[in-house]
Design a protein that fits this description.
By secondary structure, this protein is an alpha+beta fold. It contains eight helices and 18 strands. The chain folds into two domains: about 60 residues, no CATH class; about 200 residues. Strands 2, 5, 7, 8, 9, 12, 13, 15 and 17 form a nine-stranded antiparallel beta sheet that branches. Strands 6-14-10-11 form a four-stranded antiparallel beta sheet, with no helix packed on it. Strands 1-18-16 form a three-stranded antiparallel beta sheet, with no helix packed on it.
């Protein structure tokens, strides 16, 4: 479940979150990176079957439901869905949800700050790596934080037709992004490693922030492949020619994937969209469903 917006962090939340400060985040995630790509048959079969049972993964939605056909756990985890499993909302006035998951928070960016959980927020500027030029269009805009649980589909799709203009990799910690951690750890999403993707659309600029987490061993995009690892300590920037056909995407096109689960934050300028009235924090959402309306 996503964070409960009616309560502050509990003692149990702090007890769950405190040990994560001590963990070697990146070392553990690199180990997981290797484990999930192991093609040792008995190991990947045992682990994958346990995962499906434990997290109640619905394999009937997968393009290939046969677990033995996946060469490694990561191939299973980033599996494609059936073509009819996630229809994309066709109405051109509506934005499609980019992922399967749950709404953690959504609303307005107020005075340059984004709401994380009761008693917790962080600045848009730090989320975007202190890039004032990129942050400016979103300063009083809209945001939605979407949490992907381990059982969810982990490919990320574009909410609206767009043209890729830039990408930024911002190194950081790899705290869990579980609901308990989101309630307990200050500035969580601005502290974790993340990849920010920027698009130009008919609605104006749009950004999708792909937030890493413990055991999220890599984030990859369809145009650059695996962006992380390596983790590094330096912020990296890429710019793209939006006129290139390879950088132009339609609503619903796949743009990236998490190799293990995490969080996506949508950013839009003010007076460009309005979140739909039936979308609230704690709601389950599916990729392709309507989540916002253009103004």
């Amino acid at each position: 479940m996503p964070p409960n917006t009616d309560h502050s962090a509990t003692l149990l939340d702090y007890l769950k979150a405190w040990p994560t400060y001590l963990l070697p985040h990146h070392a553990l995630s690199r180990i997981m990176h290797a484990i999930t790509r192991s093609e040792i048959r008995w190991w990947k079969t045992l682990f994958t079957r346990w995962f499906v049972r434990h997290f109640k993964v619905d394999m009937s939605l997968a393009a290939d439901p046969r677990l033995e056909h996946y060469p490694c756990f990561n191939a299973f985890f980033t599996r494609a869905l059936r073509a009819d499993a996630r229809p994309i909302v066709a109405d051109d006035t509506l934005l499609a949800c980019p992922v399967d998951g749950a709404v953690s928070q959504l609303g307005d960016i107020k005075n340059g700050r984004i709401f994380q959980a009761k008693g917790r927020d962080y600045t848009l500027l730090e989320l975007l790596g202190h890039d004032e030029q990129q942050a400016a269009p979103f300063m009083d805009g809209k945001f939605a934080t979407l949490y992907l649980s381990p059982r969810d589909y982990h490919r990320i799709h574009l909410p609206f037709d767009g043209r890729l203009t830039a990408m930024c990799h911002i190194p950081g910690r790899l705290f869990s992004v579980s609901p308990a951690t989101a309630r307990a750890v200050p500035r969580l999403f601005a502290r974790n490693e993340r990849v920010v993707t920027y698009f130009d659309t008919d609605l104006g600029p749009m950004a999708l922030v792909l937030v890493g987490a413990i055991f999220v061993a890599s984030i990859e995009t369809v145009w650059a492949g695996e962006v992380t690892p390596p983790a590094g300590k330096t912020v990296r920037h890429w710019t793209y020619d939006p006129a290139e056909p390879a950088h132009q995407f339609c609503k619903g096109d796949e743009i990236a994937r998490f190799n293990m689960g995490s969080t996506v934050i949508m950013l839009h300028p003010a007076d460009s969209i309005q979140w739909l009235e039936n979308i609230h924090p704690a709601d389950k959402v599916q990729m392709g469903q309507a989540i916002a309306r253009r103004i």
